[in-house]
Write a structure and sequence with these properties.
With 242 residues, the chain is mainly alpha-helical. It has eleven helices and two strands, in the order E-E-H-H-H-H-H-H-H-H-H-H-H.
Length: 242
């Protein structure tokens, strides 16, 4: 069975110093621009270590979700070693990819409204789908992550996007096939492909997801379809630039 979240169903203060605002481009990439500072105490903080992040995820997630998080961290690290990506970045993105799962639907919508994070009509009607976008915001604002590639990997881990970076592909695939997953179709094939041809593994996941959703007459996020169409045409240079 394919997971539901594979579909991608200001505060201003009076302080004089300007700080960065979390902004999200329509391309599925994020950037920073200037705004008046809000009341967040986490702005400008140093990124937490992997050990601290792991402890924080264990504290806010239930045991099943935390086990999945560790599985994604482990699988992301393995794929990073296989393809020459940063293992630390892969582990960080893996640990934080579901950091907003602990939020209620109401809280996710509130974060998006207050921070100008765009929501599709599908996401507005199914706010649980916002956990990836809100998770990227949390990673930046609460856990001190400033690496754009890590933030993009969290933001796009459910739908993907055309021209994904190597790290984005790794986290997307790791989330789908980590050792604790056992219900999705063709997992054995996808797990083999993941270590031989990353793009083919990505395409297989997208194809299986779309086939499942269309067979169930489920809503499909347009970005999932765009990503599938992009990779169906064959490998292309990644857009890791911001």
């Amino acid at each position: 069975m394919i997971r539901k979240d594979r579909i991608s169903v200001k505060k201003s203060g009076n302080a004089k110093q300007e700080k960065k605002k979390f902004c999200i481009k329509k391309t599925g990439r994020i950037n920073a621009s200037k705004k008046e500072p809000d009341t967040s105490k986490s702005r400008g903080k140093k990124a937490d270590s992997l050990r601290k992040l792991r402890k924080k995820m264990e504290k806010i997630q239930d045991s099943r979700r935390f086990e999945h998080t560790l599985g994604v961290e482990f699988t992301s690290a393995a794929l990073a070693m296989r393809y020459g990506a940063s293992v630390k970045s892969a582990r960080t993105a893996g640990l934080l990819h579901d950091c907003a799962k602990c939020f209620s639907d109401k809280e996710r919508v509130s974060v998006c409204l207050k921070n100008n994070i765009p929501m599709s009509d599908l996401e507005k009607s199914n706010p649980f789908l916002l956990h990836a976008k809100v998770g990227a915001w949390m990673a930046r604002e609460r856990y001190g992550i400033s690496d754009q590639d890590i933030l993009n990997a969290i933001y796009n881990h459910t739908t993907g996007r055309p021209g994904m970076s190597l790290l984005e592909k790794i986290v997307f695939i790791a989330d789908y096939m980590e050792p604790g997953r056992n219900h999705a179709p063709n997992l054995d094939e996808i797990r083999r492909l993941a270590f031989t041809d990353l793009d083919q593994a990505l395409l297989k996941i997208l194809s299986d997801t779309l086939e499942y959703l269309e067979g169930k007459n489920g809503d499909v996020d347009p970005m999932t379809k765009k990503t599938w169409e992009y990779y169906k045409e064959g490998p292309a240079p990644s857009q890791s630039d911001i």
